[in-house]
Amino acid sequence: MGEFDRESIEQKSGLRKLTTMQLLNFCLGFFGLQFAWQMRIILSGPVTENFGASPFLFGLIWLAGPVTGMVVQPIIGAMSDKTHTKFGRRRPYLMLGAIFAAIALWAFPNSQGIAQIIADKLHTPLPVFGALIVAAIMIWVIDACVNAAQGPYRALIPDNIVPEQHAIANSYLSFAIGLGSVIAAGTAPVLKLLFNYQMSLEAQFVMAALAFLLGMTWTCITFKEKPLEKPQQIVDEKISKQSFWTQLKDFLETSPEVYKICMMQFCTWIGVMCMFIFFTQFAIHIVYAIPDLTVVSDEMKEHYATATVVATNFSSICFAILNLVCFVVSIPIGVLSTKYGNKRVHMISLLIMAVSYLLMSFMTNPGTVMVLMGLAGIGWASILSLPFAMLSEYIKKGSEGSVMGIFNIFIAGPQILVCTLIAWFISHCAMTTPKGLNYHWEYSFVIGAIVLFVAAIITKMIHEKKPE
């Protein structure tokens, strides 16, 4: 296609072909979003365990992410499809999500003080689990706001960017996720290593709040949405009146390949969340052999305080390595998928991640665990971009936000299984060690490896749609 023809088509459709600098600018808000999300992933375990959360309670608190994802993203996605303001369709949701998430990120590590203030105002003693209840509420607010911003952000791609750039645009979001996660996870360990300064949990969450708020503000100011034409301002009347379940059924019936993509995504995210939810606890209790601290005395907690900080920093370094690899390979993965197809590249990436999980479940050497987390980063980079690129070929015009919200069910649903069934399973796999009670946190990686292998098999069965 000639340059004149391309420009003519872009003018008629209103879609744009972005330069490299424009793609980098576009993904800056996602950098801030992931910065905040990564801090929540790494540090929510130590914070809630300090407030008395057992493995099962910890899993239940993690339900905030999938439940809000299943409820908030489809609703916000559908609302953003029908929103028409001078500020845009998607940007109001990005900005409001960032503001409320920033407040909750500050409040989460300060839950003990907030609970005490509430108790003082009510002139009642502080309940035993008062701080844990406040922390759980803040987690729910953070996750709801992240989900409120994430779906509309993804919908900006089919809204505004030419179809042949969908895979590379999603890869740039993967690039931003990797970079944001590396900086979020690596800041505290690097400061400790270079300057012997240990950032407090409170300071790390404030840093995450600022990154989310400033990054999203920049995107909302600099990225202009395509103006809506009058017939597209409101999604088709028939679609808007459909129930959620009818929309879900119609979405799955769009093509047999959509159903396969959703099942692949479902299995993939069981595997992903086995790592995200349990890795920090795995690092603390298996790699560094620190016993469970939820039922010990304050003196014992104090005894293991330094070791817990070291183990938490190790977990942060591992997540930084995971996301550094994601950052490095995300754009090459987009280029390779353009050349060899999304399906082939994604299947190989999932297999690499599955093997790294399986090996990790047998390892307690910190150096080996770091290397395996790096290998898992290849799969993580692919997961963040290629399923969305495959799905975007089947999205009907005007339903981008709704589709991204519905597709998120196959990300959030698996998390519920991990937060409940797998957390319950681990809580029933206690072991007695010379140091005290502990749990088999490594079992989560065995389960994760199995479902990632299944996801790779499903990916092999997908017949990829050829771009027009």
Structure description:
This protein has a two-stranded antiparallel sheet with strand order 1-2. The chain is globular and about 65 Å long. It has helices at 3-13, 20-26, 28-50, 55-62, 64-81, 91-107, 111-122, 130-160, 166-195, 201-222, 237-240, 244-252, 256-287, 298-303, 305-340, 342-360, 366-383, 386-392, 400-407, 409-427, 443-461, and strands spanning 430-433, 436-439. With 468 residues, it is mainly alpha-helical. Helix content is 76%, strand content 2%. Strand 1 (430-433) and strand 2 form a beta hairpin. The chain has one domain (19-225, 246-461): Growth Hormone, Chain: A. Mean pLDDT is 84; it is low at 230-241.
Could you say what the CATH architecture is? Up-down Bundle
CATH homologous superfamily descriptor: MFS general substrate transporter like domains
Report the radius of gyration as a whole number of Å.
22 Å
Major β-sheet profile: 2 strands, antiparallel
Beta-strand share of residues: under 5%
Order of helices and strands: HHHHHHHHHHHHHHHHHHHHEEH
Structural class: mainly alpha
CATH topology: Growth Hormone, Chain: A
Termini separation comes to 12 Å
User: What's the CATH class, please?
Assistant: Mainly Alpha
Please state the average pLDDT score. Answer: 84
Give the helix level as a range of percent.
over 70%
| Biggest β-sheet: strands ordered side by side in the sheet | 1-2
Number of helices: 21
Shape: globular
- Low-confidence sequence ranges: 230-241
Number of strands: 2
Number of domains: 1
